[in-house]
Specification:
Elements lengths: L5 H5 L6 H4 L35 E4 H5 L17 E3 L9 E4 L2 E2 L6 E5 L2 E2 L1 E2 L8 E2 L9 E8 L13 E7 L7 E7 L3 E12 L2 E12 L9 E13 L4 E14 L4 E2 H5 L14 E17 L2 E18 L14 E22 L2 E24 L2 E27 L2 E17 L7 E19 L2 E13 L2 H5 L17 E13 L5 E12 L4 E3 L4 E3 L4 E15 L2 E14 L16 E9 L4 E11 L15 E11 L4 E8 L7 E9 L17 E8 L4 E9 L1
Length: 698
Amino acid sequence: MLPLPASAQEAVTLDELSVAGEAPRPVAAFSASAGYVGGVTGIGGALQPVASASGGLVSGAQVNARPVTRPGEALEAVPGLIVTQHSGEGKANQFFLRGFNLDHGTDIALFVDGMPVNMRTHAHGQGYADLNFLIPELVGAVEFHKGPYFVRDGDFASAGSVRIDYLDTVAKNVALTSIGSFGYKRALTIASAPLGAGNLLVAGEAQTYDGPWDVPDRLKKLNGVARYSQGTALDGFSVTGMAYWAKWNATNQIPERAVAEGLVGRFGTLDPTDGGDTGRFSLSGRWSHTSEAGITRANAYLIRYRMNLWNNFTYFLNDPDHGDQFRQLDDRVLGGAEASHVFSGDLFGMPMENEIGIQTRTDSMRIGLFNTTRRQFRSTVLDDRVLETSAAFYYENRVRWTDWLRTSVGFRADGYYADVRSDTPANSGRARDGIVNPKLGLVLGPWADTELYLNYGGGFHSNDVRGVTATVEASGTLAPVVRAPFLVPSTGYEVGVRNRSIAGLETAVALFRLDFASENLFVGDAGTTEPSRPTRRFGVEWTNRYALTPWLQLEGDLTVTNARFADRVPDTGRRVPDAPTTIASAGISFGEGEGWFGSLRFRYFGPRPLIEDNSVRSRATALLNGRIGYAFANGVSLSLDVLNLTNAKADQITYFYESRLRGEPLIRPPGQPPQGTPDRHFHPVEPTAVRLTLAGRF
């Protein structure tokens, strides 16, 4: 991230309320993207000043300077965050941060334009966060926090939260087209114009992609955004509509033994009918007002969402005759709102701010799990109707005690209610739960352009509510199950330092610890609950952003984490499966206005334990992506992205579990699930691919 301008750095003080809630965006002068259009981010601009060593802001220009394979990878602009994929391109990404395998979003809270992306009680996995509707060129800025220290962050935010804001207007309209390896084609247009007292922005995107797979993904995606806005981020409003639809085939992870035996190639599949389709349609609005009484903000949203997934991860283990493919259906309407008010005052003559806020969300959904063969229905495992609603109240007090000491003290209270109507009557029921968490922060300095941060806070994630009300297995055996807790608490600690003593360089180091009381989860793939053990993670993060000149920027990040189960179970290890120990990245971007521009990005995803005793581990993945382009004086630009520049034969993801190939022996112990062959199952990184983008600004 580029160092904030002086005005933005001053905004972290509490002396002037008029700027404390609205720090100016960091603006990048360089142009390392053929499609980035710049513009104004209005409603939903900068939130509260960054109050930890691990939080920050990333400009849209910096996001778009990254050559990426898929939209979700734009989030790798957040230091220490890995975004990958283990299935078809229409499926939600998999995330890794701070020693967490976050699956599709279990403990990282994602927001786009004020709307939550995480889906609770989802058919495929708790917290499922599908970012494939993201249009990177529309991103105005990204704000990120790590750890459960911030009052606005609730469910799914224990490891961190990321808020993405779209532009209200663009400096110039843009039309671009991209073509590339493996059938990649993309077209995008973005335009804005004055309308009445405000501005209208519209954007449309279409994409197709096959990938290197033996069975092509045949991804088809349509995406659109329309927004009307008036005023500014402090006094104004906006109304936004979004529509997204996608359909794809999927090559899921495959066992190493299938490749070694020549049954499939590295890019092959054991079930060519896996895949899915999804749609997301939303209407949202934001409003803000500033007066002598303070800053008031409100936003509301309504989302219609539907998803079908066909997956087969174990092949012929559970059903040797028909195979183990299943369909997961998620069909829901969700809506919610948030309102907050920030007002200033003084405490014994010392500048003070107070913030109060409320949040609410309700999901009404149908969730189904069905056994299938080649996408044809065979039987129903579960078909449930669920209503889940929540409300939260938060308060924070911020005081500047001296020129070198400021504090924040707050709390957040969350309440949840759910009503489950299951096709297995014994699993129907109602559930309630609540949690109150403190949030504390201390900032010392600056001394010699250095600040010291101390943070503490409680957090939580919700579990799939079907696992909270269930009493028997939904698989047909009706065996009793242990209910999962509704809300699982976490506790985080962090001490960090940020230094800006060298012109253009911002460097930060953070030491952190995060404890989870119990990571009991509902396993959507099987329709059962699987309680796990308490965990503890501690580690260190080092982030660096260096603007050598207005046209040349460097960055480098390193995260090292120790993740362990906090209890001791005889004959069982303490390693947390799939928890990354080391994540590192480095990059260089150059370009300013007309002429040459480019970027080079390196990302290292270290080896991970795949089972508790650490006897089976994944391999490391190191990838290098590059971009080179030229911007002409007439507004036309041409760029070439080269993905996986070194053609690394690495894995996007690796798991270790039992599966059965056709013809392999099958063991059925009495009263036990069928046993297959334990093996590493991997999804490979795509080989070297090129993408050429032609863009015009007018």
